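Encode chain A's predicted structure.
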Amino acid sequence: MNPLERALDARLRLVETTLQAGTVKGYRRTARLFLEFLRRRFPAVTRPSQLRRDPHLLGWLEELWTYRTTQNTALTSATRGSHVLQLRTLLELMDDLPQPPPPGLVQRSDIPLRRYPLPRPLTAEEDERLRQIWESSTGQLDTILYLMRLTGIRIGECVDLEPDCLRHLGGNQWSLHVPHGKPRSERWVPVDDRVRQLVERLAFLRSCSPNPDPKFLLPRPSGRAVLMSALRQHLCLAALDAGIQRLEFLHFLPEMF
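Encoded structure for chain A:
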């Protein structure tokens, strides 16, 4: 490793101590793309202090715009923005070096604006048709989707529910224990009798499944990702059954989870 590669590797190991594994993976990909660019275009740059905004950083930013994935698709503005922010963080963490990189290599104006293609919300009639489909079904996927609809929990939180997630608080009061998810913290969600019945149905369906995982309420014989994919596909089918045929809604459904 040259001094620049060693410095980047040391900062990557530093961010590993505070960030989640998926985020660290993104940082490592950013560092790899930047180093590959320098080796190809500027092989003489081997030290952090040699970096310059023009041509090194501006050249890398230009390459991000033309970069193609293995599927021959361009990077989205959100992905490019993540790479720019992550490289800026890594470079700023080098300020304690005896010969740090010059300041201002990455500027705020370099970060592309993120685009948020938001769908139109369901109408009350469309939501009611979906509710009727799920309420009249006893199938596992429909029951899971209805549970998510009534509690507002995310798909990742739902598939990670534990077998004893339903807690009786006394009287007619119940609460659902939601495990660590996107907010990185567990929480309790007050629920009514409908949710209690759905959880009890899922527990019964789990007992009918061969070799259920003792850690989770929902069987996942083919893995977590396969179960999540099946839920997304089933939601699209339920939307079509409910007469929801707006293309922008059906296209956006997988991103809602």
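Residues 247-257 have pLDDT under 50 and may be disordered.
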